């Protein structure tokens, strides 16, 4: 098998969430290695999101909202992301969703990583630089998602709200997710959040990025 064939096989997307050696039995089943992988995944996620922001081509939908909130309130982007996550978590109460360790740390670590990333990564001023920053960021968000999801320590606030609304209303998960994403994108844009080519790239590629990362994780942990 040629190098390109092996590389293509290595990047083959996975159709489901793989069962990993570090997967928890419950949302509060903690161990040092599991928590370390969770924290690393969330940090990678946040840094990837920051790279998309610094691409200067447009943000992911929820970050468009957080940036708009930041502009209107004077909060930094990291703190605006934290406040948004806490507000979404409050929606879990009427939905009767129960958070896990991963849910709570999701809010804190991703917000802190975004705050750090936007202060360290340079704001891109060219189209090529912006595209590179956005694509690397999307890849990191996909990898971070695969790592923290496979820990099984609870969904992020937004994912939990999505599944909770689905369970309470019977509306398909995909339609619920689309409705939420479109709503926060429109509100964020009205608040002044940055939308553009990067936003479109994120919407088109993030699903594939997560699926490819699931595949990589599945193949590496099966050996």
Shape: globular
Estimated helix fraction: over 70%
Roughly what fraction of the amino acids lie in strands? Answer: under 5%
Report, as a whole number of angstroms, the end-to-end distance. 19 Å
Structural class: mainly alpha
Largest sheet: none
Q: Runs with pLDDT <50, length 5+?
A: none
Output the radius of gyration. 17 Å
Order of helices and strands: HHHHHHHHHH
Give average pLDDT, whole number: 92
Give an overview in words.
This protein is mostly helical. Helix content is 73%, strand content 0%. It has ten helices and no strands. Helix 2 crosses helix 6 and helix 7 packs across helix 10. The protein is globular and about 50 Å long. The chain starts with a helix and ends with a helix.
In short:
The protein is mainly alpha-helical. 73% of the residues lie in helices and 0% in strands.
Q: What's the layout of helices and strands?
A:
Layout: H1 3-10, H2 32-54, H3 61-73, H4 77-90, H5 92-95, H6 101-120, H7 127-149, H8 157-169, H9 173-191, H10 197-221
